[in-house]
Amino acid sequence: MKYIFFFLAFCSILKTNAQNEAWNITTTENNEYTGIAIANGRIGMLTSPDPFQIQHVVLNNVYDVDPELKVSQIVHGMNFGNLDVFIDGEQITAKNISNWKQNMNMKEAAFTTSFSFKNKAEISYTIYALRNVPYTGYIDININAKKKIDVKVTGKIETPKEFNKPTHKYEVLKDMETTMPILQSVAETPFGKHTVSTSATFIWHAINSSRENERPELIEKVASDYTNTLTFNKTVTPDQPLAFAWTAAECTTQDFNDPKSESERMVIYNLLNTKDVLLAQHQKLWDSLWEGDIVIEGDLKSQQDVRLALYHLYAFGRGDSDLSIAPMGLSLQTPYNGHIFWDTELWMFPPLLIFNQDIARSLVNYRSDRLTPAMERAKNYGYDGAMFPWESDDTGEEATPPFALTGPFEHHITADIAIAFWNYYRVTQNEKWLADKGYPLLKEVADFWVSRSERNADGSYSINNVVGANEYAANIDDNAFTNGAAITALRYAGLAAAKLNLEPNPAWENVANNIVIHKFEDGTTKENKTYSGAIIKQADVNLLSFPLNIVNDKEDILKDLKYYEPKLSKKGPAMGKSIFAVLYARAGDVDKAYSLYKESYEPNQQKPFGALSEVATSNFSYFATGAGGMLQTVLFGFGGLDFTEEGIVQKNPVLPKQWKSLTIKGVGPDKKTYRIDR
């Protein structure tokens, strides 16, 4: 009997280890390093291989405008994530440590670095972008001495050199018997649009356990015009590890009338709460997010890859923000200035709508809040309704650089937004939202497409002079995806009107029924009116099969797939292969679908964590658009899920032979679970 007990215990340990591996990505190699974004929908911190360093801080929806380039850029804020740590007078660097290891815990949204410093100490620290206090970061540090050591720690607020009028201070605020040491820096963004304030302090966990007498003396020093520092010294012995945190809040005039005072209040809130309380609140919110999850048995790498993709979409969004998600989320400013594209509505939005209707609502509300400037833009270009910008920022006006043809001509985004709006209603059945926000936008979009379409002599309609999803073909007529998206948006506006018992514009149905989709003689869909077989940047025609369901006959779907798959550029973004994978899975060719699924993201993974870049030859991460694409293959291809007038339904799921099972949890408002077994 005891052997059976030990065997069962051993199996339980193996199962627990497997579950932990599915939530954690660990590395001990840093020769090639692309960081991971630690983010909470308001701020993002990009990790670094160097001890006690982060690469930068990104501030969501905080844009500054370069008067020379004449485009807005999302702000890299003050960097509060770098500390200088000395042991016995020697600064800890990448060159004098050993046993370096980093771990990304996706379940807890926690990033831990650990290492040994000579024969003197074992050190670890964990970085959090607190979900519960979303303008703050929290770095929890533990130093375990192997012998008696003298430790010196300097926390820093580093203001970018491009910022203007930096000022720094340190003061100890007092209320009753409570003392609150606060380091603070304030400056203007490079081109003066916003004031940024960052406050920071050390937290000794023992203080909140009534041991305030153990607080080390703090020394403040302005190291330069752009660096503000706060230092303490402490003798540490093997029997008493040093456990403390460095926390900071970064606020701007984009979100606060008085960012200076608010950043202080947030730091004080973190200072006077225990670590256990703060991190429990953070974890509770992440546990809620992870109610929407994908579980893959039999393929650990796919499991980790899928979870990392989901983690980033959750980390880059917030249900309480009414903000959208840029292609690189909160990981990087370049290469697209933090602007919002069709990437959100077509690629990231569908997986989020499956799992988290709160974040999905923020994404659509971001567009609704910018309906007025979209209507102004349509008027400025001679059209009715609303014409959304190809690149959007906080203003809702066009933010594309003037030299880029996509700004004036890539109009399909206006239809993409409408499609996301109707899908949000389909899933939530929220008629109040539809009446207040959904239909007003759908109506204006439909009116735009009526005015944007041109009637031909035979009564058909064309949409001329556009840039389609395939951006290699500029200023062409009757782009397949643009036309298909317009048809879909017009029909959805009619459905929305009917749902609200309103009278639709009769022109919507007439134009939708008569917009041209050109074909080759054998019935293959033409990418545009004059297309003759050129290489394409990404999926365009095939989007008419998924997600638009305009080309829906199996033979026609396969005909388009076989024609366009060889024409997909190797230099383009990988999302096209995600669409091909969905369609092959739905057609029942699961081996082909799985192969394309892997090709859609694995070449773009960067060492050591598998962060996605837009193309295989770059390391700009994290490419949230690519994450959305590969997740759609799992959800809408293998998982068989679909958006319908009845909400989310499952049709014909298929399971790759490499997987033992696929479980999709937390689907839709009812949090349904779908499981596919071999």
Automatic annotation (TrEMBL):
Gene Ontology molecular function, alphabetical: hydrolase activity, hydrolyzing O-glycosyl compounds
Domain Glycoside hydrolase family 65 central catalytic: 307-519, 526-601
Family matches, as InterPro entries: 6-hairpin_glycosidase_sf, 6hp_glycosidase-like_sf, GH65_N, Glyco_hydro_65_M, Glyco_hydro_65_N
Signal peptide: 1-18
Domain Glycoside hydrolase family 65 N-terminal: 36-239
GO biological process: carbohydrate metabolic process
Pfam families hit by this protein: Glyco_hydro_65m, Glyco_hydro_65N
Name of the molecule in the record: Trehalose/maltose hydrolase-like predicted phosphorylase
Keywords: Hydrolase, Signal
Domain of life from the UniProt record: Bacteria
